[in-house]
Amino acid sequence: MKPFCFFNILLIALLAGAGLSLAIGLPVAPVIGTLVILSYVIPRQAGVLNATLFDLARPEGDSVGGGGGIKSSIILIQGADIEWDAYPSRTDGSVITEDIPLKAGKYMHRFYMTQGTIKPSEKKLKGENKDCGGFEIGLAGFFPGIGKAVQKWKANFGISFEGIILIENCATGTVYLIGEPCNLAQIDTMDTSWGEDVSKKKGTDFAFLSKQSTPMAFYEGAILYDPKSASW
Prior knowledge:
Strands 1, 2, 3, 4, 5, 6, 7, 8, 9 and 10 form a 10-stranded mixed sheet that branches. The longest helix is centred in the first third of the chain and has 22 residues. By secondary structure, the protein is α+β, with helices and mostly antiparallel strands.
């Protein structure tokens, strides 16, 4: 152990031990000694840096670094509709194999975006010091037109939406998940435009954003959609 760390522990033990000995009426020295010993015996929380480093080789296949290929409908799950007490944990830090549990009568919902405009993003979120930080994960895309349905969605969820986002690779069927418990995805920006002519876009650019402690996950559970919905 580094000397600086040892003296920090010793100083904390002296201060805490003095107060504790007065409170319980025991001699100061045994109390301080016990606190110092416990600081070494009690295991600390294991963080990401305690994982064993492994090789990261090139993925198999052609054009594995090429973009595109995302289905035109992403899937939104309202945070208030999820049974968070039963929310599954990740396997290997990146895979959710179980179904996301929803409350009775609640479902996952499609959100259309024009093919070729859907752009997921993920970057390291720098913290103020070495003990904080995480990942900033976003999803941007274009919804065409300025109709009653999209305006109704904006009015109800444009400001208050918080939840989980699922995006699917059209070719492989791989589903990616954005958001985590207590760090849900939200609407970051909405920008509606009406083009000057038919070659210019008319509709809304939506951007979702999540600042979370873990990177984007793979979701291998079921898609629980409303069987009565015409959009499916």
